């Protein structure tokens, strides 16, 4: 199905989860698992900008690194019906060197072990050092080293409710989008090759 900003921002016409509803609820309570309105707008802008690179527009993924790692801040948005599921995701150790649970900085530099912001195109799923994974191609100057750095979506033992229960935060990756093993199948099913993953740390109440 073709994707457009107008469609996504008017999902209420389908009688389902509209972006206007998301905006109202998210503005009231950032713990609800809803996408930040400002970050959603950035993701939609990125989808427009990279429309020649993104083949499939049925699902998009959004990583909100303005939230702490204990929050389910990795969102899968279904463009067909407006529904959104939220999942845990770790950031890179180079982005949080003191392990506070909050991302402190982005970096695109090789060897930084940091997360990078911007738009990514998902590649074909594969099985590698971390098991089932999804390769990512960075589409912006802020993340265009993603392929050479080996930045992928994969599951990790340090991303789980149990980890949060013990430490109040997740572990850290080497820059990859590390998710819980229990949610990886859903993520891999919905976020197959040729889709958009967008990451940023836009403040929640940004206009």
Characterise this structure.
- The chain has 207 residues and is of the alpha+beta class.
- The protein has a single domain, classed as Beta Barrel (L,D-transpeptidase catalytic domain-like).
- Helix content is 22%, strand content 23%.
- It has helices at 5-8, 19-28, 37-49, 146-149, 161-167, 184-190; strands at 59-64, 74-78, 84-87, 89-90, 118-128, 131-138, 152-155, 177-179, 196-200.
- Strands 3-2-1-9-5-6-7-8-4 form a 9-stranded mixed sheet.
- A hairpin with a 5-residue loop joins strand 2 and strand 3.
- Residues 1-32 have low confidence and may be disordered.
Secondary structure elements and pairings:
Layout: H1 5-8, H2 19-28, H3 37-49, E1 59-64, E2 74-78, E3 84-87, E4 89-90, E5 118-128, E6 131-138, H4 146-149, E7 152-155, H5 161-167, E8 177-179, H6 184-190, E9 196-200
Parallel strand pairs: 1-9, 7-8
Antiparallel strand pairs: 1-2, 2-3, 4-8, 5-6, 5-9, 6-7
What is this entry, summarized?
This protein is α+β, with helices and mostly antiparallel strands. It has six helices and nine strands; from the N terminus they run αααββββββαβαβαβ.
Total number of beta strands: 9
SSE run: HHHEEEEEEHEHEHE
Inertia-based shape: globular
CATH topology: L,D-transpeptidase catalytic domain-like
Keywords, please?
alpha+beta, nine-stranded mixed beta sheet, 207 residues, L,D-transpeptidase catalytic domain-like, globular, 6 helices
């Amino acid at each position: 199905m073709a994707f457009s900003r107008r469609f996504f921002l008017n999902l209420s016409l389908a009688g389902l989860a509209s972006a206007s509803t998301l905006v109202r609820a998210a503005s009231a309570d950032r713990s609800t698992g809803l996408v930040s309105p400002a970050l959603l707008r950035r993701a939609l802008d990125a989808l427009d900008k990279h429309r020649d690179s993104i083949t499939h527009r049925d699902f998009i993924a959004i990583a909100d690194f303005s939230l702490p790692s204990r929050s389910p801040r990795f969102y899968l948005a279904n463009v067909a019906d407006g529904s959104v599921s939220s999942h845990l995701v770790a950031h890179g150790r180079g982005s949080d060197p003191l392990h506070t649970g909050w991302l402190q900085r982005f970096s695109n530099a090789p060897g930084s072990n940091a997360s990078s912001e911007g738009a990514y195109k998902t590649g074909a799923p594969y099985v590698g050092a971390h098991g089932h994974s999804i390769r990512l191609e960075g589409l912006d100057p802020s993340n265009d080293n993603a392929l050479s750095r080996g930045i992928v979506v994969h599951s990790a033992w340090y991303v789980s409710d149990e980890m949060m229960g013990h430490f109040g935060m997740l572990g850290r990756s080497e820059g990859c989008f590390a998710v819980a093993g229990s949610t990886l199948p859903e993520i891999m099913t919905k976020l197959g090759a040729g889709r958009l993953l967008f990451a940023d740390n836009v403040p929640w109440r940004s206009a």
